[in-house]
Amino acid sequence: MKNACLVFLIVGAAFAQSSELRTFTNAQGKAIQAKLVGVSGPNVTIEMANGQQFTLPIASLSAADQQYLQSAPATAPAAPAAAKFTFKPGPNDKLDPAVVNEVVGQPLFDEAPLWTSSATEIAEKLKIPQESKTKTASSYRAYTKDDYLMFGAHPYSVAMYAENDKITNFSLVFANKGDLFSSKGGGELHFDKDTPPAKAAEIVKTAMDKDVATIAETLTQKLGAPKKERFGERAGRMNMQRWDWRGHAILLAEAEGEYVGVQIVTSAFADAGGSVADTVDSVIKARALANLEKRPNGDVIVGDIPMVDQGPKGYCAPATAERAMRYLGIPADMYILANAGQTGFGGGTSVDLLLEGMAGQIRSKRRSFDSWRGELKLKEIAKYIDKGVPLMWCLYSTKEFNNTANKRTKERKDVTDWAAWKTKVTAEGASNLMEKDKETSHVVLIIGYNKDTNEIAFSDSWGENFKERWITLPEAEQISQQRFYVVGF
Q1: Domain annotation for the chain: domains and CATH numbers
Q2: What is the pTM of this model?
Q3: I need a surface site. Which of 5, 55, 238, 347 has the fewest CB within 10 A?
Q4: How does pLDDT run across 347-406, given as a tens digit for each residue?
């Protein structure tokens, strides 16, 4: 036993000391430079030169790499030591967190920087419910009540993003043309919205001007005059007013006629203008394949796709696009995407304009972007799903369609005889007639298929309850707009 422990310590020490970069090669022959962090069961965690960590299936690597990793201790990667967050000193750093929290209007800050704090704990403190959780990333979002204030104004949406439970940024959206004219319901009910008033543009401008003035005045009173900078990438790049405190940059932006937003990011990220490092294809491909789930009944599903809840407004297109982009490592925000898509009051986005606006950003991050028109074909769907990539699908989300999908999805959970299920849904699909209704235009992600039962799985941007629903291919074709878009590689 003593000798076994000694061998384990020697092997473990050897890997712990091997912190230099080495070449890892995937099964297709593509190579990346990274260092080993640790091995857990069938997975390995590696770290890129820029500090980003990724967990990949060992089986996705070359035979030589698999042999190399066989000697690694079969333990979960050790939790990283508490990060020592450093930042350039500034004139506001002497301010106590309690004073800055008075400016914020919520108990956001403490002595420890946000970036070293637990996202779960901060979310509980701010009462922001979890929106999405994947293997490495999580998001929290609250659509707040009218009496909820931050920086002296009312944010309609408060979103917090994290990686490995460490906060990366906050995104707050104040007066905006989506939420100001949204319906009172979420999910399927967002189609039941009133016609926006004739003076919608005037109402939006008045509300936005008021919020910008209030937020800027509130921050300036305690943190001094702001710096004016450009921040963001490509379509999302815009003018910002910036205030700093202890390594936190508070950025106030106004997209004319669209929205007022506040982002809270690291000062270093703000100094870099909001530029995000690319993630190489080999890492993204391996991670996408690792998310592919093949069930005993023949279902093939892309899992670990982040959820984005569009809330009580017609932001299905930008919310769905954000999900597809974030899934493949491209930072995105549905409000910024809605701006690119020239979304109408209360919602309603030109999908073509939105995707034209984000296509450049997608390709600049070394991802591909495909689009086509035509019938739903299982072979075409499988081509992408089998790589671990979802498809954006434009359809008419009618009441009949939703009722059928909800009923079918619920029944599916109790199926044991899949041959009988195939007979049942084939008969129902052949007799089920659904008319297209242009008032219910919608965008979802196709996330899976079952060849045996001729069904597809799709996911709406309406929260976790709509994460996976099923419908037969013939039924789906009846309400399809025959337009498809894919962020891939």
Answers
A1: 2-70 (2.30.30.700), 97-271 (no CATH), 281-309+363-488 (3.90.70)
A2: 0.70
A3: 5
A4: 455 667 666 666 666 766 667 888 899 999 999 999 999 999 999 999 999 999 999 999
